[in-house]
Amino acid sequence: MEKNEEEEDQEIESFSSDDEEDKGGAEKCIKHYSSSQRILLVGEGDFSFSLSLAKAFGSGHNMVATSLDTQAGSQIMLGVAWSGCNPDEPTLLSQDQRLNKRLVKGFLKNAKTLLKEETGEIHISHKNGDPYNKWDLVRKAEKNGLVLLDSVPFCKDDYPGYVNKRAHGSCSDDTFHLGDCTTFKFRLKSLNS
């Protein structure tokens, strides 16, 4: 049986009022993320990170998570480089490094337009060590009118249920060893700085 417009409007109002009730509850946190923040998660892969946050908050009302379905033949290149699953396959590491650097630079340039002047933050979790330290995230952010607020260790065990994925190629659903990682927190550079 099809719903008429009035029934659909009532469902939307009901959903909105439930959502508002969730917002009125006590603030809940997981590491440096809070249920009172508005969070945009870009390149979320299998959405396990956003699900971990939503479970900790008791709701996902404050989040928007995005992903690109690699199963549909698309590609996404985020802050993780890979060399493929098969050691006999030629490595794409240097090409991927260049593409990832350009992706991060474009992301910083565009994401800063979404920030609230004084309180908005951009967080990028990134592997440490060579070749990732050559990405020079802080310098890229500064060139885009951002300043580093803080950098903290990222540990996937802090986010129950989170599973990292390769996001590319024939092994895109495989996990990989993260090693040491850092979450860099950036904010808009103030006019007084």
Automatic annotation (TrEMBL):
PANTHER family: 25S RRNA (URIDINE-N(3))-METHYLTRANSFERASE BMT5-LIKE DOMAIN-CONTAINING PROTEIN (PTHR11538:SF63), PHENYLALANYL-TRNA SYNTHETASE (PTHR11538)
Renumbered residue ranges of the record's region Disordered: 1-26
One GO BP: rRNA base methylation
GO terms assigned for molecular function: rRNA (uridine-N3-)-methyltransferase activity
Gene expressing this chain: VvCHDp000983_7
Pfam families xrefs: BMT5-like (PF10354)
Acidic residues compositional bias, start-end: 1-22
Protein name: 25S rRNA (uridine-N(3))-methyltransferase BMT5-like domain-containing protein
Organism: Vitis vinifera
Residue stretches making up the 25S rRNA (uridine-N(3))-methyltransferase BMT5-like domain: 40-72, 98-166
